Amino acid sequence: MLRRLHAEQPESFAFTPANRAWAEAQIAKYPEGRQASAIIPLLWRAQEQEGWLTRPAIEAVADMLGMPYIRALEVATFYFMFQLAPVGRIAHVQICGTTPCMLRGSEDLIEVCRRRISEEPHHPSADGLFSWEEVECLGACANAPMAQIGKDYYEDLTPESLERLLDALAAGEVPVPGSQIGRFASEPEGGPTTLTQWAGEGRQPHNGSVALALEIGDTVKRIDGTEVPLVTPWRRSAPPEEPPPVAAEEAQEPRPSEGIPADGLGITVQEAEAESAGRPDGAREPGRDARATVAPSPAGDPAPVPEQAPALLHGPARGGRRRSRGDRGDRPEARRPAA
């Protein structure tokens, strides 16, 4: 499905101070040169702030991460969790229309949205409070049909229960998420049918996700960065360790020469440590006098070196290769008489 940016765009975008501090903390998770890995959380935070993802927001996030605009746009248009058009001020309703929910009545829920919100998806209602769309599977097939409103799932819906949810949200209330028929988690409707002797032992009133939503309180409200203190454990670093003290290099004193006893006054012939026992100083080492290390030549003049004529190059051979006088083909023993 081709997704495009909305035709009407705001002039600019800027994170709130709290959201910008959060965004910079997310970028700090990644090593230098890998800041683009924070693209999805930053786009999500921008959407939470504005309600939908605008072009200036996409470009602002790309600038923060040092990315080309087209790369950030590719991410924003690929994932359906990013809303590219304005949404309702209170909530955006996502109706699951995949097979299990469709068989259980999701088409009736869509008709409620068409009547209560707008005829077409991705268009806010006349009062601007709600918007809706049909989405693919949200993973709650056992409790179909269902819808996601805000950040929570509302399951086992009927047209009547969806109407009540919209009325409660419009009145400023936050309905209890989860099953709307009293089902616990994804148990059979009416209660468990197996292991019933342990069903009520230590059971909480609500399953985990519903209990967490009730603890948070308002799961429809958009995140603005003030919900919880900003915690960035990845920024904590131990104080730099001081380097161990470097021991002063002890001077290498000369040692007595082996096999030479001290004289009557206690004076000995001393020899200093060589810089490298395996590679004594040579004539080609920089800073040394080559004459001090080169052995003298034996007496007498050196034998004369016979002069050698320089090699001559003939014209190109038949194969196009030039041959010198040393080539095998020019040697007398290599020539053969014609047959």
UniProtKB/TrEMBL annotation:
This is NADH dehydrogenase subunit E. Its EC number is 1.6.5.3. Pfam families: 2Fe-2S_thioredx (PF01257). Residues 276-291, 326-339 have a biased composition (Basic and acidic residues). Coiled coil: none annotated. SUPFAM superfamilies: Thioredoxin-like. Belongs to the complex I 24 kDa subunit family. Residues 231-339 are annotated as: Disordered. It catalyses: a quinone + NADH + 5 H(+)(in) = a quinol + NAD(+) + 4 H(+)(out). Keywords: 2Fe-2S, Iron, Iron-sulfur, Metal-binding, NAD, Oxidoreductase, Translocase. It comes from Rubellimicrobium thermophilum DSM 16684. It comes from the Bacteria. One of its GO terms (biological process) is inorganic cation transmembrane transport. Its cofactor is [2Fe-2S] cluster. GO terms for molecular function: 2 iron, 2 sulfur cluster binding; active transmembrane transporter activity; inorganic cation transmembrane transporter activity; metal ion binding; monoatomic cation transmembrane transporter activity; NADH dehydrogenase activity. PANTHER family: NADH DEHYDROGENASE [UBIQUINONE] FLAVOPROTEIN 2, MITOCHONDRIAL (PTHR10371:SF3), NADH DEHYDROGENASE UBIQUINONE FLAVOPROTEIN 2, MITOCHONDRIAL (PTHR10371). GO terms for cellular component: catalytic complex; membrane protein complex; organelle envelope; organelle membrane.
